[in-house]
């Protein structure tokens, strides 16, 4: 009988032989055969359960791993010319992993001693553990330019698309990257900044036709003035940052916190864990932990990093790229809660009763280590009975308790009744060439709702704590609709045969009753859109006016400090009010808090406009090959110059010009939101179903022009007029039409009563 090695001997073997870590390799090394393999398997499972090992497919390894974005020190090329690098942030106790650098043709030459920021991919088998792709050299931050390439006899010039740029850029013959005349290119500064003459650049990406889909987001970024290049001082500060030690923090590394994000997420700023409350005074209760990346520890008030983060206000998200608020050294690495890597956090422990009401909470500043970076789909599949290799070990002790706590929160939400709009969110899927591959509507899973409810709860806890401590802070404010907008919503509801109560203080439950009454009817989308339009826009403020949409009295943004400056302010306020350190709010920051609130509310709107414009351009490019096709849709806007239609298939918005509606004059009633034909009496209103033909799609502007074919499944009536639209009749006809419209409106109101 073979001797089963001790756990210490197994760990020593794996540390000394990182490429021979399968159960078969271990058994062979210790001469274990036959039925003794069962005992070996048991020992390995115990080590895995204790956190000493992590199973990766059929092999075992140290659970500590390198983060997806890491700082590396480049070594000298080996005999085969391969370039390897040393990870500078290895936390494991075993053998340091081997990283192979894979340069791209457009990458600058790397040499021994270069420190680089790289994106890592785990490799199974072979003579190395990771493959690295260069993001940039540490300490180098070349200026970037977006412009049109103009070919010259030798090399070329780049004409920036930014109107504020005063100079063209010279491109040497060997730095064109094959760019053609008239192409949109992205380039970076080549060589030191000269005092005389035009700056020199090297083309790093060819984006092709300036109207092509791949160029869309870059153009929007520049048009809306979103800063997309970090100053040298900002990058230098980020590069100098180091991993945070445990000192002064609560050790949360043994808590099985998990991150749950979209499958393509690059950064993870929130993690959660839940379990049944063992307090006998709270039967059926739950304890929920939410841990958030401690960005305040790295971004201190008054630093270059802080000034740039405040300037940007937030990250901006596009279908093909992200313009981050913080440099990738922080957003993708040190401030991201990657799996298996120690990361600083600010965490809140929240105690819920059996009905999902928060009865207590406490904040701590800690050091955590995520046990898994999961995505929504796989978490939902695990709960639906189809766990994979990643979720199966976590199902009973981590995932199911999260859903149990969520079930309680759902009950509390139902009692609170926040606004429940049903407006599906579009998701643009891009192909490898940057063109739109498909347009889908995002699936809403319980896994999404679970994280949303946990984050809302943590945001409430942050606001309540700072109020109790009388600390200055930024609230997330959403005021109730104005009386004028509510009157317009009531008219729309009445025209659809529905009622919105009047003469009482409006609450979200009243709007939910209206939405529920419309659900399943032809007017459902109209009522949802009209309700959304009646809402005021949320903003940041130093005065607490509550959050109407969420039906909450106290609300602040705490859960996304990597991508929102408001959350960073709240983190600093928590640091100061708890006396956790000197990296909290400073007096100068408190004095300008109101200006900061206004500024970041503006940057949020700027990003929303850029993201919307980008989506419109992508959709126009996607539909440009389908000009002449027919689509169904619904009218979602009326103006004097035409009718706006949202297409069912893609959610794209198009315009039916009023001149194309026929040869009759159309009277516009702004109060009723209608167009009415002078000859046919045809009334066109928001919410009607239409069939349209796409007549024009312009990717450069994102415009879609449509032709109306049917209205509420009926063909359009023919006008008896022979003269061009809008000629005879003039003011007398317009006045007659208005009287007729008012008469029809009065009839509709009486009928509905």
TrEMBL record:
Residues 729-753 have a biased composition (Basic residues). It is found in: Cytoplasm. The keyword Isomerase does not apply. PROSITE patterns: RIBONUCLEASE_II, S1. It is an enzyme of class 3 (hydrolase). Its main location: cytoplasm. Its EC number is 3.1.13.1. Keywords: Cytoplasm, Exonuclease, Hydrolase, Nuclease, RNA-binding. Pfam families: CSD2, RNB, S1. Residues 628-709 form the S1 motif domain. Gene3D superfamilies: Nucleic acid-binding proteins. Residues 715-753 are annotated as: Disordered. It comes from the Bacteria. It catalyses: Exonucleolytic cleavage in the 3'- to 5'-direction to yield nucleoside 5'-phosphates. Belongs to the RNR ribonuclease family. RNase R subfamily. 3'-5' exoribonuclease that releases 5'-nucleoside monophosphates and is involved in maturation of structured RNAs. This is Ribonuclease R. It comes from Parasedimentitalea maritima.
């Amino acid at each position: 009988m073979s001797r089963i090695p001790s756990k210490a001997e197994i760990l020593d073997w794996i540390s000394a032989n990182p490429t021979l870590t399968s159960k078969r390799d271990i058994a062979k090394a210790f001469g274990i055969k036959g039925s003794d393999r069962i005992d070996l398997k048991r020992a390995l499972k115990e080590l895995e359960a204790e956190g000493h090992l992590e199973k990766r497919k059929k092999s075992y390894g140290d659970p500590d791993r390198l983060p997806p974005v890491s700082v590396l020190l480049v070594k000298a090329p080996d005999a085969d010319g391969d370039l390897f690098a040393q990870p500078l942030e290895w936390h494991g106790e075993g053998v340091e992993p081997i990283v192979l650098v894979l340069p791209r043709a457009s990458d600058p030459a790397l040499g021994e001693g270069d420190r680089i920021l790289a994106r890592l991919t785990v490799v199974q088998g072979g003579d190395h553990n990771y493959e690295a792709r260069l993001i940039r050299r540490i300490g180098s931050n070349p200026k970037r330019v977006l412009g049109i390439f103009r070919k010259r006899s030798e090399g070329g010039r780049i004409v920036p698309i930014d109107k504020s740029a005063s100079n063209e850029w010279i491109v040497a013959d060997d730095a064109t990257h094959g760019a053609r005349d008239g192409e949109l290119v992205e380039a970076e500064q080549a060589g030191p900044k000269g005092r005389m003459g035009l700056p020199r650049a090297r083309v790093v990406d060819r984006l092709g036709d300036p109207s092509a889909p791949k160029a869309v987001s870059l153009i929007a970024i520049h048009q809306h003035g979103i800063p997309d290049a970090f100053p040298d001082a900002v990058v230098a500060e980020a590069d100098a940052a180091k991993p945070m030690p445990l000192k002064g923090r609560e050790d949360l590394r043994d808590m099985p916190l998990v991150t749950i994000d979209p499958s393509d997420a690059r950064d993870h700023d929130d993690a959660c864990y839940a379990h049944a409350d063992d307090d006998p005074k709270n039967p059926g209760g739950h304890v929920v932990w939410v841990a958030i990346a401690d960005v305040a520890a790295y971004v201190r008030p008054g630093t270059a990093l802080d000034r740039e983060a405040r300037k940007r206000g937030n990250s901006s998200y596009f279908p093909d790229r992200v313009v981050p608020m913080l440099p990738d050294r922080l957003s993708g690495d040190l401030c991201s809660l990657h799996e298996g890597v120690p990361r600083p956090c600010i965490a809140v422990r929240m105690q819920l009763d059996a009905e999902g009401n928060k009865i207590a909470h406490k904040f701590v500043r800690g050091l955590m280590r995520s046990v898994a970076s999961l995505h929504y789909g796989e978490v939902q599949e695990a709960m639906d009975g189809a766990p994979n290799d990643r979720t199966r070990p976590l199902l009973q002790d981590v995932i199911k308790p999260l859903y149990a706590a969520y079930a309680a929160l759902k009950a509390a939400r139902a009692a609170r009744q926040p606004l429940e709009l049903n407006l599906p969110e579009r998701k643009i899927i891009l192909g490898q060439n940057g063109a739109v591959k498909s347009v889908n509507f995002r699936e809403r899973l319980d896994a999404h709702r679970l994280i949303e409810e946990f984050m809302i709860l943590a945001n409430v806890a942050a606001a309540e704590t700072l109020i109790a401590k009388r600390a200055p802070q930024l609230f997330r404010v959403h005021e109730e609709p104005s009386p004028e907008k509510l009157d317009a919503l009531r008219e729309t509801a009445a025209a659809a045969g529905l009622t919105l109560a009047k003469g009482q203080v409006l609450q979200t439950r009243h709007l939910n009753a209206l939405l529920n009454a419309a659900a399943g009817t032809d007017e459902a989308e109209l009522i949802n859109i009209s309700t959304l339009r009646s809402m005021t826009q949320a903003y940041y403020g130093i005065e607490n006016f509550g959050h109407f949409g969420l039906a909450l009295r106290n609300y602040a943004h705490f859960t996304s400090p990597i991508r929102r400056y408001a959350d960073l302010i709240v983190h600093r306020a928590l640091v100061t009010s708890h006396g956790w350190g000197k990296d909290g709010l400073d007096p100068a920051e408190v004095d300008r808090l109101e200006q900061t609130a206004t500024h970041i509310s503006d940057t949020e709107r700027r990003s929303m406009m850029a993201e919307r414009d980008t989506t419109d351009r992508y959709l126009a490019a996607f539909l440009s090959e389908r000009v002449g096709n027919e689509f169904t849709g619904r009218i979602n806007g009326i103006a004097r110059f035409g009718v706006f239609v949202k297409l069912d298939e893609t959610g794209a918005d198009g315009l039916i010009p009023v001149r194309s509606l026929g040869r009759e004059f159309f009277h516009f009633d702004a109060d009723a939101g209608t167009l009415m034909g002078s000859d046919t009496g045809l009334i066109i209103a928001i919410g009607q179903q239409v069939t349209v033909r796409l007549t024009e799609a312009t990717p450069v502007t994102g415009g879609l022009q449509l032709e109306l074919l049917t209205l509420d499944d009926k063909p359009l009536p023919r006008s008896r007029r022979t003269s061009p639209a809008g000629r005879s009749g003039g003011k007398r006809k317009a006045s007659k039409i208005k009287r007729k419209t008012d008469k029809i409106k009065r009839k509709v109101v009486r009928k509905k009563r």
